[in-house]
Design a protein that fits this description.
Chain A: This is Phospholipid/cholesterol/gamma-HCH transport system permease protein. The complex is a heterodimer of chains A (379) and B (266). Chain A has twelve helices and four strands; from the N terminus they run ββαβαβαααααααααα. Chain A is an alpha/beta fold. The longest helix of chain A is centred in the middle third of the chain and has 40 residues. Classes of the chains: A alpha/beta (379), B alpha/beta (266).
């Protein structure tokens, strides 16, 4: 064991039935890295008496002090007598401080392992989702009540904030929404034209693009882009204010966070979303007409004539009906997740991600429900 | 971490002619400071005099417009290369703890230990529990996330992490602010114990006059974009108006008139 000689910081000897540990040199974390295992093994040896001679120590840090104390304590726990000799007074305080009151205190967060872990995780997730659903409904109700209050006393509406939000969520989103819908319109018309050409029905490409863009693509793309752009911004803005205790400051001034922070965003998005949808529809149809012009030799006027015959008002109307509902969902989820932020900056990121995922999920689920409902009532 | 080598001679920190500017505002103008090994030095100064900036300059986070800094014999380069060479030899306690929020307190303390490599996991766990109790936190704080701790507890956890590798030099940015008086005086004791056992060098920015009086060997005052260093007695006799009002204000008298003052001058 002790085979290095003079430089060895730990010298083990048996002396008259006692195990003597002679320590020398600097007992620091660097030394303990090598000695830790040997010391643990030493403390497990069946001995009656353990003597630690510390005259030779020239340096001691808390890691070294802990190793000495642990060795003594472990030997005592096994019923051995222990003695610490020759410790310099300079090292006494650090040894006295090297105490671990609860050696079983957890260091890492509890990790769930084993066969039941996925089951437990699934159960937790379901309960969590139910919880979020209930709280979101509660938040919706509370926001409606506040909205009612503002409608009765309209001067309480923060007009400047609302208009600023309309600019941020609507006006600034025009380029990206327009570009994406234009491109999707091109893709849709192109794929449709290729397939329909096979049985000479290529003129029906216009019907396909018209109905698909007006009913689904326009509103759905607009809603998903807004959820990614603005839903996340709502969560991050409000969440950061929550972390900085700005929301608490509002409350102590007697201001309602929902009235000051949520309502302007909600109202702005409900106004802006139908407008964005019209814009998205137009861009999608324009994409379709470009393909029609180059692939089907259909002039712009011919495209419009065919479009007029192909779509009814309700193809456009269903998209418009969905827009304010999706706006409501996106704004509510974004603001709700923002207000759920607590503690650290890390949770701002977590809830922002969650806001985007939840609102896109809800938008698509609602879209499916709308499709069924519209089919039932025949529009 | 000190390693097997005996401590080298020479000053722990040497700051020569440091000039720091933010835009057109000059914070430090040719500032000199020498910190001896094993010394506890307090840095004081009015708001905006660049106390924290000075600490950041010394540890290599803030590049000054001019000047030179030597930390533990290494010339600080402000491009990360010297920080690597000095890894583990100094620790820094930031004002709000600056704990990694995704890790528990225990894991935070283990970050520098993991970096240095080769330490058995069991020993790392024990040492992180030890540091937690060393700074006066309850044992269960070890498994908690920073967001679950109060401001004062975060500060202690930050200190535990700064002490993780038993560094030669620790920099403390307002360590006792936000601690209750008992906690603050325990903390002072802890610093003295660590210095006695390890020859720890401590640079602390503080406004805690009790700490200054009890544990600081010398005090560095940032005035007129430069630094005035002296023992408590020397500075008390200074004629500079800011230093005079600092050391002769009512709070200062209350702190310095106590018998503990004698102990600080040992």
């Amino acid at each position: 064991m002790a085979d290095i000689g003079v430089a060895d910081p730990l010298d083990l000897r048996e002396e008259g039935g006692a195990l003597v540990l002679r320590l020398s040199g600097r007992w620091t974390l660097d030394t303990m890295r090598r000695l830790d295992r040997e010391l643990r093994a030493t403390a497990r040896r069946p001995i009656h008496r353990l003597v630690v001679e510390a005259e030779g120590l020239t340096g001691l840090d808390s890691a070294g002090a802990w190793a000495i104390r642990r060795t003594l304590e472990q030997a005592e726990a096994r019923g051995a007598e222990t003695e610490l000799r020759g410790l310099s007074d300079a090292y006494r305080p650090i040894l006295d401080k090297a105490v671990v009151p609860d050696p079983r205190a957890p260091v890492a967060p509890p990790s769930r392992t084993g066969l039941l872990a996925p089951l437990e995780g699934a159960g937790r997730a379901v309960l969590h989702a139910a919880h979020v659903g209930r709280n979101l409904a509660g938040f919706f109700g509370y926001t409606l009540v506040t909205l009612g209050g503002v409608l009765v006393r309209p001067w309480r509406l923060r007009v400047t904030a609302t208009v600023a939000q309309m600019e941020a969520t609507g006006l600034n989103a025009l380029p990206i929404v327009g570009l994406l819908c234009f491109l999707v319109g091109i893709v849709l018309a192109y794929m449709g034209a290729l397939q329909l050409k096979q049985f000479g029905a290529d003129i029906l490409t216009v019907n396909l693009v018209g109905v698909a863009v007006l009913r689904e693509i326009g509103i759905l793309l607009a809603a998903i882009i807004v959820a990614g752009r603005s839903g996340s911004a709502f969560a991050a803005q409000i969440g950061t204010m929550k972390v900085n205790q700005e929301v608490d400051a509002l409350e102590t001034m007697g201001l309602s966070a929902v009235e000051v922070l949520v309502l302007p965003r909600l109202i702005a998005l409900i106004i802006v979303m139908p407008l964005l949808t019209v814009w998205a529809d137009a861009a999608g149809l324009l994409g379709g007409s470009v393909v029609a012009l180059f692939l089907l030799d259909l002039s712009f006027a011919q495209f419009l004539t065919q479009l007029k015959a192909a779509v009814s008002f309700w193809d456009f109307g269903t998209g418009m009906l969905k827009a304010p509902v999706f706006a409501l969902v996106i704004a509510l989820v974004g603001c709700y997740d923002g207000l759920r932020v607590s503690g650290s900056a890390e949770s701002v990121g977590r809830y922002t991600t969650r806001a985007v995922v939840e609102s896109i999920f809800l938008v698509i689920v609602l879209d499916a429900l709308f499709a069924v409902a519209f089919a039932e009532i025949g529009i | 971490m000190t390693g097997a080598a005996p401590p080298q001679d020479g000053p722990a920190i040497e700051v020569r002619g440091v000039v720091t500017r933010f835009g057109t505002t000059t914070i430090h103008d040719g500032l000199d400071l020498t910190v001896k090994r094993g010394e506890i030095i307090g840095v004081v100064g009015g708001s905006g005099t660049g106390k924290t900036v000075l600490l950041r300059t010394i540890i290599g986070l803030q590049k000054p417009a001019d000047g030179e800094v030597t930390l533990l014999g290494e010339t600080v380069a402000w491009d990360g290369s010297s920080t690597e060479a000095l890894a583990g030899r100094f620790g820094m306690l930031f004002q709000d703890g600056a704990l990694f929020s995704a890790l528990t307190v225990g894991q935070n303390i283990q970050v520098p230990m993991r970096e240095c490599g080769g330490i058995p996991p069991q020993l790392m766990d024990e040492l992180s529990r030890l540091k937690v109790s060393l700074v006066g936190l309850p044992p269960d704080a070890c498994g908690k996330f920073p967001s679950e701790l109060s401001g004062g507890m975060k500060k202690r956890a930050g200190l535990a992490r700064a002490l993780a590798l038993d560094p030669d030099v620790v920099f403390l940015d307002e360590p006792t602010a936000g601690l209750d008086p008992i906690g603050a005086s325990d903390f002072d004791e802890l610093i003295l114990d660590l210095r006695r056992a390890l020859g720890l060098t401590v640079v602390m920015v503080t406004h805690d006059l009790d700490s200054l009086a009890r544990i600081c060997d010398r005090i560095a005052v940032l005035v007129d974009k430069k630094i005035v260093v002296g023992t408590m007695e020397e500075l008390t006799g200074s004629q500079h108006p800011w230093i005079r009002s600092y050391f002769h204000g009512p709070r200062a008298r209350a702190a310095f008139d106590r018998p503990a003052l004698a102990g600080a001058q040992e």
